[in-house]
Design a protein that fits this description.
The chain has 326 residues and is of the alpha+beta class. 22% of the residues lie in helices and 25% in strands. It folds into 2 domains: 8-143, Spore Coat Polysaccharide Biosynthesis Protein SpsA, Chain A; 182-323, no CATH class. It has helices at 8-11, 33-57, 87-90, 104-114, 133-143, 197-210, 285-288, and strands spanning 14-23, 65-74, 94-97, 119-122, 127-129, 154-156, 182-185, 190-193, 215-216, 222-223, 226-227, 234-235, 243-252, 262-268, 274-279, 296-298, 307-311, 322-323. It has a 5-stranded mixed beta sheet, with helices on both faces. A hairpin with a 2-residue loop joins strand 10 (222-223) and strand 11. The longest helix has 25 residues, at 33-57. The chain is globular.
């Protein structure tokens, strides 16, 4: 074997991944809220650092990243986050001040524009991830290299159950009718159904708002003053799989035309075409409930005509997989 070649196992080790956690801590709000959020952030950071150590020390082959790092984006915290985090945590991560648009999408965009990593993982600051979070992402990605998004197991801080296999499916008979979201408590070996009856009501309301423009291909409509953008995406589960993205952002050329955030849903219709479903930001996340937001993963580059990159944030505990864009 040539000395410059690698073994099959070595060649499948993933290059680099950067974990990005956007957060804004402020003195404003109810008493104790900032302290609670700081506690949540510390727990999140510690869990990600454990996942990084697990990746470095215990994982081999296809389930391992060559290098994993953690960046916390300080989204205009007051006082600055560097003054709030203890030194022992600060020394194990990078604190990146958000110099761009305030808000989660702006913070993620700022991190994406600066990352040297080949892959980026996101999680919310109030979530804690499992030790095998990064390795489970690598494992799924090794099996499905054409997937753009995938996520590993995580918990909401303070909750006992692991939200592992949360997904939404489309009914075969009607594109606009959704089943309940399902989660599995793997530790207890049992399953439960989350009450998402409001989901269909929210969808119906958005459909009424947009009329026949609700399902679009290519450049979508402007929704509540927010500008949608051009893209085509395909889901791996043909026909009935829905991908949820609460913070879908796009950076187009030139840089000055950065688009606003919209809640975007990608699905494959029965006719085989790929469509993007647009709704006002937060309309469906309010129905799903913030207590079910999970850790997520995204590739920073999604090819599309005239587009530099897309940021996909999937609020699922185990992402169903978004296939490569057409």
């Amino acid at each position: 074997m040539d000395e410059n070649s690698s073994s099959p196992a070595e060649s499948t080790i993933h290059p680099t991944i950067e974990v990005v956690v956007p957060v804004r801590l402020s003195h404003t709000g109810p008493p104790g809220l900032r302290l609670d959020r700081l506690t949540e952030l510390k727990a999140c950071i510690e869990s990600v650092l454990r996942a990084i150590r697990h990746n470095q020390d215990e994982v081999e082959g296809v389930d391992r990243w060559h290098k994993a790092t953690l960046t916390v984006v300080d989204d205009h915290s007051e006082p600055p986050l560097v003054e709030q985090l203890p030194r022992d945590l600060r020394e194990q991560l990078v604190i990146l001040p958000n110099r761009g648009t305030a808000g989660q999408a702006g913070a993620l965009n700022h991190a994406l524009s600066r990352t040297p990593a080949s892959h980026v993982a996101f999680t919310d600051s109030d979530c804690t991830v499992a030790p095998d979070w990064l390795s489970s992402i690598a494992h799924h990605y090794s099996l499905h290299p054409d997937h753009i998004g995938v996520a590993g197991p995580s918990w909401l801080f303070g909750r006992s159950e692991k939200l592992w296999s949360r997904y939404v499916t489309l009914c075969e008979s009607e594109l606009m009718r959704y089943s309940f979201t399902r989660y599995v408590d793997r530790r207890a070996g049992s399953s439960s159904r989350l009450d998402c009856r409001n989901l269909s009501l929210e969808v119906a309301g958005a459909a009424s708002l947009l009329g026949d423009r609700f399902f679009t291909e290519g450049r979508g409509p402007s929704v509540s003053g927010q500008t949608s953008h051009r893209m085509r995406a395909a889901l791996s589960g043909a026909g009935r799989t829905l991908g949820y993205s609460d913070a879908m952002t796009a950076r187009h050329k030139p840089v000055s035309s950065v688009k606003e955030t919209v809640a975007t849903y990608y699905l494959r219709g029965r006719d085989g075409t790929y469509r993007s479903l647009y709704a006002p930001h937060g309309s469906l996340v309010s129905a799903l409930g913030r207590r079910y937001l999970m850790g997520h993963f995204v590739r920073p580059a999604l090819a599309s005509p005239g587009t530099a990159w897309y940021a996909l944030v999937a609020h699922t505990a185990y992402w169903i997989g978004i296939a490569r864009s057409a």
